[in-house]
Amino acid sequence: MQQIDPRLTDAKLKSIEAIAARLNIEGLKRVARELVGPCPVCGGKDRFSINKDMGVYNCRTCGGGDVIRLVELVQGCDFKEALQWLCGDAEVKIDPEEAKRREARFKKEQQRRDGESDRYRQYARKRAYDNWTSALPAKGTIVEEYLRLRGLPLADIPACIRFHPDLPYVKKIGGKNTRLHSGPAMVAAIQLPDGRFSALHQTWLDVSQPKGKALIFDPEGAQISAKLYAGPKKTCAIRLHTPEGASTLVMGEGIETTASAWVADVIPNAAYWAGVDLGNMAGRQVKEKGKRHSGVPDLVSGADGFVPPPWVKRLIYVMDGDSNPKDTRAKLLAGCRRAIARCPGLVASIVSAETGRDLNDMIMGEPDNG
Length: 370
What we know:
- The chain has helices spanning 6-13, 16-22, 67-75, 79-87, 96-133, 142-149, 255-264, 278-282, 325-342, 359-364; strands at 29-31, 34-39, 43-51, 56-59, 63-65, 136-137, 161-173, 176-191, 197-204, 216-217, 223-224, 227-230, 238-241, 248-252, 271-274, 314-319, 347-352.
- The chain has 370 residues and is α+β, with helices and mostly antiparallel strands.
- The radius of gyration is 22 Å and the shape is globular.
């Protein structure tokens, strides 16, 4: 029987915070129990975080994973090279008793991390659900005004979209929950594959602004996104429209992009779901040396990306034209390939908006952002 490489256990027991320091990841600030800052690969301001208790990192653009995945991301290397970077060359022999001790230690630590992760997910889901149940029907509210302003005069606003009259915008600043804004918001249910509620998409509104979103600033005066999601969204979607007998699913990243395709009726009798973000639509990818995104889905590590339900025979991903075209296409290609692998007989394709604009810009007649 071939012995499992003991370095694998050793690597996963290493402190992800210590490894981040060894990788010289800069700009991270401690926010409660996490390190938060720009992604070492794709930049940004606060899209990247490291949770030392759970031993994982996450980037809202590049995805996330454990300490080995972090090395792959930053070093641009494959799994074997990451393992060597972390633990050196493979040991030729190891005492069987020592191997058992390492494995027991790893299982104990993994159970602790899994418990921590599960507690966080359940707390986040409950908090999101409380805000969802306290929201009101969107018809006749500022949500309807916002959608019209975005060129989306929906006769019937989907039941998955509601209105919250005074939703707090809360972020952890210096280890404390800090309210940066409070006001009217459009909220949308993010549902699991079986239809259950899992997370909440939140957009704070101010229809006096050109695109209807509230202006929100951090304590240093920098403008930050008026959109947040709360709760676990992996494998989920925002189900805007699902007509009876549909066999085609059109999916964009955000609510506005997907609803723009729906309003344009690009595919009659199709379903239109929003994928929340590119990371969820793409799922985890196989790392290829020299490539930030390989476009090849990781089909071994479990369900970590969206997969369409069995009734879907044709999947269309809508690609925004105002993001990095090479990286965005690679991510969506990975998502298409994952769906095809999981759903025999499925046909999947990518349709792109015009360069420099997303689909909602095109609906609104907005100029090229390039």
